[in-house]
Amino acid sequence: MEKIIIALDGHAGCGKSTTAKAVAKELNYVFIDTGAMYRAVTHNFLTNEVDIADINDVNKALSKISLKFVLNPSTGIGEVHVNGQNVEPFIRNMEITSRVSDVAAIKEVRVFCVKEQQTMGKDKGIVMDGRDIGTVVFPNAELKVFMTADVKVRAKRRLKEMESKGVSTSLEDVIADIENRDHIDSTRKESPLKKADDAVVVDTSGLTIEEQVASILKLAKAKIGA
Ligand code: CDP
Ligand code: CDP
């Protein structure tokens, strides 16, 4: 059966990663969380005290980063490794989350990550989620979905997720983070978050994860001809 590229873009907390993971599993495709790559670069920059206002410092740091997804056999999900170290446990905290959009707005960082993403998708059979997959990384992707949802709904979901992981924060702080990142991501000069002209819009505000996954699977199967 023909393999395709499925690009899932959209705002923070719409359920892109959860959906991409489930769709990839069902189709036996590879799931690639591009946000994890920008988070991993941010983690590296913070650890090495890179001055993001100094482009020479940024380029020097990027030249020393080797980024890979390594499959975790117990979950079947690829985890992001930087220079051989699994950084997955360090990239989802509030510190990284609050800084990642500024790092992801840097042109050189985007060029670095996009090149890796295009290599990962060269054989197709991938579900990639992010902000610019349908517009920049794979403008010819066979299926493009643009997800959005009411900010309060997204923040409540995120808060629940964080509380279940023992992270204490407030709904106000989560709303502020999501609004701030959406703003930076949508207004940056380099590859801003925007709907591709040929993307299908899915508003997940009133959807359960199961409904969301089913709707994307239906679109994917129609494209694949399954
Ligand atoms: O999961 P969540 O929506 O909170 O974020 P993420 O997908 O992990 O992405 C974290 C951040 O990385 C986003 O807010 C963007 O600033 C950046 N990002 C990007 O610029 N381009 C992508 N393709 C993916 C993420
Ligand atoms: O990748 P993105 O930031 O778009 O969202 P996610 O990390 O997949 O989902 C954020 C949280 O919302 C997760 O805890 C999901 O389980 C939850 N979610 C939900 O409860 N209902 C949905 N319809 C979609 C996501």
Automatic annotation (TrEMBL):
Key words, A-Z: ATP-binding, Cytoplasm, Kinase, Nucleotide-binding, Transferase
Cytidylate kinase domain mapped to chain residues: 6-221
InterPro entries: Cytidylate_kin, Cytidylate_kinase_dom, P-loop_NTPase
Subcellular location: Cytoplasm
This enzyme's EC code(s): 2.7.4.25
Superkingdom of the source species: Bacteria
Residues reported to bind ATP: 10-18
Main location: cytoplasm
Recorded coiled-coil stretches: none
GO molecular function annotation: ATP binding; dCMP kinase activity
Gene3D superfamilies assigned: P-loop containing nucleotide triphosphate hydrolases
GO cellular component terms attached to this protein's record: cytosol
Keyword Cytoplasm attributed: yes
Pfam family, one: Cytidylate_kin
Family: Belongs to the cytidylate kinase family. Type 1 subfamily.
HAMAP family assigned to the protein according to its UniProt record, in alphabetical order: Cytidyl_kinase_type1 (MF_00238)
Protein name listed in UniProt: Cytidylate kinase
Annotated organism of origin: Flammeovirga agarivorans
Gene (UniProt): cmk
